[in-house]
Amino acid sequence: MLDVRRMQVLRAVVSSGLVTAAAANLGYTPSAVSQQIAALEREAGTALLERAGRGVRPTQAGRLLTEHAATISRNVAEAETALAELRAGRTGRLAVRYFPTVGARLVAPAVARVRREHPGVRIDLRLHDPDDPFGEVARGGADLALVVGAPHAPVPGVRLVHLLDDAYVALLPADHPLAAKRVLDLADLAEQPWVGSEPPGPCLEPVLQACAAAGFSPDVVVDGQDHATARGFVAAGLGVAVIPRLGLTGRHPGVAVRRVRRPEPVRAVHAAVRESALTHPPVRDLLDALREAAAARP
Fold this sequence. Notes:
Layout: H1 4-16, H2 19-26, H3 30-44, E1 49-52, E2 55-58, H4 60-87, E3 93-98, H5 103-117, E4 122-127, H6 135-139, E5 144-148, E6 158-173, E7 183-185, E8 193-196, H7 205-213, E9 219-223, H8 227-235, E10 241-244, E11 255-261, E12 266-274, H9 281-296
Parallel strand pairs: 3-4, 3-5, 7-11, 8-9
Antiparallel strand pairs: 1-2, 5-12, 6-10, 6-11, 6-12
């Protein structure tokens, strides 16, 4: 295998035409340069230089390797420039995964800010797999994911950054007797028919745990599976629902929104960030923008 450093020594000799001049330019002794050329000739299996008066000139094999050495130097210089651009956050790819209810309130303004500050960075923005929200970050397929809750055991190579605690509120038909109260005890909903608004998983668990603490299990008569559908069912008078505040998008004339207490269900929203990605300026800036968006939410 040819030694790239020795090829650059050969290039220096060919450029100057003299071993002594090449040695002076490289900061080597003439003997060290001669030894490098001799070692490269052994690797190549052929002579690379021949005498020409007081100096030397390349053989056909020497010219070939000199041309390749120049190409290697250009490629290395281009690689160094590209690396510097990447490290400065001017180029590269930022892969972000999120879940629907943080899209408009957190992800959209944060990503918009990163695009303004890093226009050369390509952003890969997609919903994550609800059954494996940490998976892509842990496997290196994504740099950051917005997740609810936290794993019971730490995920190697992934750092969790707390963004906010998202409290749940009750949705009632506007003409429901309980709508007259500004704040509801969770137990007030114990005997009510419920409209499900969350699929099984970390967003449903805080509701079920809070209901258990209040001494009941919700009687789910309609399974809406998403906040907009649940709100429509509530407006139609089919039951009550409990959804996170981030799930409130606009007002529905047939729905009353009330705070819940004793206990108040709350879900924790985190950014799961790949440790190695934290050295990339766009990732750090996205994390800052997410914190800012979380602090600014109503």
